[in-house]
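Quick one: structure for this chain?
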Amino acid sequence: MKKTFMLMAIYFSVMSFAQIKVVKYETSQKVGESGYVSIFRKGNKYTINYQDINSPSMNAERSFSFVNQNNDVNALYQLISDGFKTMPSNDIMLELPNDIVYLHFLENKGKVIFQFIQIVDKNKKIVGKSPYLTQKDVDAIFSQKALNPENTVPVNNFTPATTTATATATATATATTKASATTTTPKTQKKSTTKKSKK
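Got it. Here's what it folds into:
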């Protein structure tokens, strides 16, 4: 009787343990930074943190995240870098799962500068703005560690996922027409197109 009871106890204990699944814990790792803007990676999720210069509080920080599908992080870096080479006449809008983010470019003293403008929770009443960044700052934020976490995609050979400023399902980029350079909620939108170069 005792032997039967022990066997049953062992059986149920093994069955209970078999239902426990060991999950790999991943910590958030800073992979790029410049001044008050930094980028973190946790698994396949990227988060960009920045000091909100639009907030009355000097130390206010905001962030937005996206999943790196189809090299979205490379596509984002490419969009920003292209904006420094040829400044777009309109802000580029990125639709993320929780937020709207504009890539805003401005010419200052003959040099192009850039900032993130975030519509927090897609609520037009809550707008966060990063400090202005130079191309050098952007290169430091989107470091080799950020762009190539597994050293599988050479940056020099990277081709954006699409030629219409679309950063896939988690970050869909479309060119947005604005009334002025500082407007963050444009009235009309139009898709930006890029001509493919002939080889």
